[in-house]
Every structure is written in C-alpha cells, then in structure tokens.
Amino acid sequence: MQQESIYNLIPKEYVPPPKEPMYRSQFPATLPPTSSTFNNKTTSRPKVNNLNGDFQLNKGPHTHKGASSSLGRPKGSYKPDATLFRMKNTGTMGSNQLPEVKPYKYEASVKEPVPKKDEKPIHGLKSNKNFIVANAVENILSAPKQLPEEKAWTEKRDFGKVPDYLTNMKQSIQNEYEIIRNMHLSEADEQDKQKYLMTGEEIQQLKQGLKKKWEAVNKEYQSITHIKQIDTVGLKRKKEKCEYELAQLEKDMAKLDKNYIFVDTQK
Question: Could you report the per-residue pLDDT of 56-72, keeping only the tens digit for each?
Fold first, then answer.
C-alpha cells in the first residue's frame, strides 16, 4: 500500500509501454487445418482433410483448395497459358514408376506368450501366515472410525419460526380475500344506490292511480259480461284481456300494502 506523501500530488510523466512485436504463427499459412471438412469438392480426398496435422501433404492429382474461392484473381489472369500443359510420364496418375517395396513388420504383442507344453506350473506353494490372527491384530491396532458430527438443528437462527415464504403466501391470500370482499361491498353499495324507499304520499298516489285504472277496466268488463252470447273472436279476446288486467292490478295493489316499498331504478 502506498503511503501518503506530498510528492504524490505531483503528476508523474506518462511513459508509454514498448510495443510488442507482431505475432507470427510458426505454422505455414497455406497448410489446410487439421480435420477440416471445408475441402474443395473436386479434390481426390474428400470429406476430412489433414487428420495427422502434417506440414507436407501427399498431394493428389487435384488440390484441396479452389482456384478462385476468394474475392477472385485480377482481370486477365484467368486466360490459360498455352505453354503449361501436362507432359508424358510427368503426372502422378499416369506415371510408370511403382512405389518402393518395403517388408511388412508385425507390431510387438502386448499380451504374455502362451506357456509351452514343456513348462510346468509350480505346485505346493504354502504360506505360514495365520490370517485370523493377522486380521484380529489389524482391527485392534486400527483407529476407530470417526462418525460425522450431527448438526445442532435447535441452535439455528430460524429454528421454530415460520418460514418467510409461508408468511408471504398467507399475506398474499389475505390480500386477495380483502380485494374480493371490497368488490362485493362495492357492488352491494351500487345496488343500494340504485334503489330508493317510497314515501307514504307516493304510495297513496300510486294506490289511487291503480284503483282508478281497476275501476275503468272493471266497467269495461261489466259491459261485456251482460252480453248473453259471446260469439265473436273480438269479444272473447276483449273479455280475456280485461280479466288479465284486473288480476294484474289486484296483485300490484296487494304489493303496495307492505310496510316498506323499494323501487329499483335499474329495471
């Protein structure tokens, strides 16, 4: 650690580090990569190339690199040269020279040779070691097995406490219940606001109006009932209509006899 000093307040002159030499690979740039599958389709060795990673490849009649697989050659370089053509006995396919014959050598066998018929195994080997006594002495002198120490679960900080995730789940459920309860209360309030209690004066006015309506319908009904024979469809329908209206008016007047009457404005 650098100590405090007044000389450290003066900025030091920056000395640029020396530039390292440019990296150059020790492998030739024209060598195809090891186990490469990016080969030219016209090569005599397709699929995988240069498995051994050799620097000098045994070139076949076709190269592994394309003639113009990059951005291309300069203009005019694709014109063939009439002086460069294959001479007789200069190619690898049509050459009469045979490869040098070498004797085949078998690799050294790793397995032990099979015993011959004259070699007899050694019999009668005995040992004076008492394995029972040796086992007992070994167990007596051996150190006892150390059992792993049991953890003191009661000494943990959160022993006997409710886990945090249970508390969070309980709180989230309680919040959902509160939201649902508030929704029901708000709906009930909205329904209560849509209804209002009728006053006694309004009930009396409604009763009088229904009574006048009943008297008018009853008068029309009485005029029909005095006819001796109702033989037309119009009179039958008129009588049925009057009977229905009288029954409905009586039901409505019976509802108004209750102590409290609420009116729903939503309907």
Answer: 655 555 555 555 555 66
CA distances from 247 to 185, 207, 242 (A): 39, 15, 9
Distance CA 242, CA 240 (A): 5
197 strand-pairing partners: 262
In one letter, which amino acid is 122? I
Q: What are phi and psi of 253, to 5 degrees?
A: -70, -30
How buried is residue 253: exposed, middle or buried, by Cβ count under 10 Å (0-12/13-18/19+)?
Answer: middle
Which amino acid, residue 170? K
Backbone Cα Rg of the chain: 57
Strands in the chain per DSSP E: 195-197, 262-264
CB–CB of 2/8 below 8 Å? yes
pLDDT, tens only, 134-164: 888 888 888 888 888 888 888 888 888 888 8
pTM of the model: 0.29
Cα–Cα dist 63/27, whole Å: 19
Report the pLDDT value the prediction gives residue 158, as an integer from 0 to 100.
Answer: 82
End-to-end Cα spacing for the chain:
86
